[in-house]
Design goal:
By secondary structure, the protein is mainly beta. Helix content is 11%, strand content 72%.
Length: 213
């Protein structure tokens, strides 16, 4: 039993003996991202990455209007605050399959679980219907790519990558409503469920700055 544990420990240690950490950023005009990985035996780099996009809108309106209940002109004020954000954490693997001088070709595969955050307040009251609708949205995606890195030295490289992304969006909504039954002449309560699915497969290109340490 001890010999088996020792052998397993030696294999585990040797597997990571030549490993090193890696960090990279992908600048551009679209979503920018960064990743952090661990290179194993010069060929494999499992990594995690993160991107996000967030925005806010604030509206405030004041003026005068005619109040039909009071039958007179009154001052009014209206405020609305909306915010939306999407967070894109990913896990993936990069594999270097060809080395030539300072060039290394690789393939990469990643899975992403987008997290959507949307909120809206009107005159200080949160829109609960919108919140419930967003909670019913499911998002996930992935990408597969091919790229080449040019190593200026052992620790720093500049890379270019081309690939295909996949994004799937599905929405499920359940609610209760009434349906008129002409046989009875009455409105009857019923449960309803709506589902919607959408997928998108865009290609992408990116340039990355990578540091191995």
């Amino acid at each position: 039993m001890k010999k088996g544990l020792i052998a397993f420990a030696l294999v585990f240690v040797s597997h990571f003996t030549y490993g090193q950490f890696s960090f990279g950023v992908s600048p551009g005009l679209s979503l920018n991202g960064a990743y952090f990985g661990y290179q194993i035996k010069e060929n494999f780099v499992p990594f995690v990455s993160f991107q996000f996009l967030r925005g806010n809108i604030a509206l405030e309106s004041t003026g005068r209007e005619f109040d039909w209940d009071l039958m007179q002109m009154v001052d009014y004020s209206y405020t609305a605050n909306s915010s939306a954000g999407i967070y894109l954490p990913s896990v993936g693997l990069k594999y270097f399959f060809k080395n030539h001088n300072k060039l290394k070709a690789y393939g990469s595969l990643a899975i992403t679980k987008p997290i959507l955050s949307v909120s809206q307040e009107i005159d200080g009251d949160e829109d609960e219907a919108l919140k419930e609708y967003v909670d019913g949205i499911s998002l996930w995606g992935g990408e597969i790519g091919f790229g080449i890195e040019y190593f200026f030295d052992e620790n720093f490289s500049l890379g270019g990558e081309f690939g295909i992304r996949y994004l799937n969006l599905s929405i499920e909504e359940t609610y209760k409503s009434t349906v008129y039954n002409p046989n009875t002449g009455l409105d009857e309560s019923a449960n309803f469920e709506d589902s919607f699915s959408y997928s998108l497969n865009p290609s992408y290109t990116k340039i990355s700055l990578n540091y191995y340490f």
